[in-house]
Amino acid sequence: MQVRKAVEAVCGGVPTAAQLESINALAKARLTAEQVYVFSLRLCDDQVDRDGERFDTGALPGLAKLFLGKTGIVDHQWSSEKQVARIFETQVVKEEGFSYIKAWAYIRRGGVNEEIIADIEAGIKKEVSVGCAMGRSVCSICGSEYGCCGHQKGEHYDGQVCCAILKEPMDAYEFSFVAVPAQREAGVLKAMGGNRKCLKELAEEFGVQTEYRALYKEAQLGRQYRKELENDLVRLCLTLELGVEEPVLRGIVKTAAAEDLLKMRSSLEGRVAEMMPVTTQLGSKFDAREGLESGFLI
Ligand SMILES: [Zn+2]
Q1: pLDDT tens-digit profile of 243-285?
Q2: Distance from the CA of 152 to the center of ligand 1, in angstroms?
């Protein structure tokens, strides 16, 4: 499958002697240190991204090799000559708790490229997106091919959040500088959507992480509550022997509005109580949840 991710360009400058050697191994004509500008890029890492996917840690070295020699392009705004940068060195960097591919790329100095260099220096053109092809995408919960099991990215399963793990690197493509914010709306690349700030980032930017964390926790509880509500309804429908199969019921309750589910549950509970007057066990279970429930009614 094709994967495209946003990465960041970090500081750059004059190449070292060793870097210049690597650059010249790729360049058509021999270049001097004065003719090139080098900068580093943080390519893929093994952390879950906004798409609910992550690269397999074991896949990073292979992927790093594939990115060697790949070119970088900028959008037409900067240059008519599209290919401007080239990756000449990649390595897998291990940090505490995560690993990532660090790449070094060079740009030939002069002409329109000076604008890009100036922008990188100024930290303006920070958004870079990379594309690659991965052979497999595996479910983090059960290990089967993602999409073949019932697990969904972003959903919780026994305290674990499901994600798709990208394995078996097949190919790496050119990377591109994305003009920010001018090109944000262009929507050419998948990563463009990803460049939009998520709530968590906004919370960090405005220093309201505590509130964000509290909200996140509440949302998690809300999701759990919703799941219980769905389970209750399925159980009630099955108890009433409506003749509808469980998978069908599950499908229906999954898409129904919470308000409708609440109304439905209360009427079905009434119906079950009429049918089976001795429902102490079931009844006490619902009563115990009343307190929690009221906190989530919106
Ligand atoms: Zn699964």
Answers
A1: 888 889 998 998 888 889 999 999 999 999 988 876 455 544 4
A2: 8
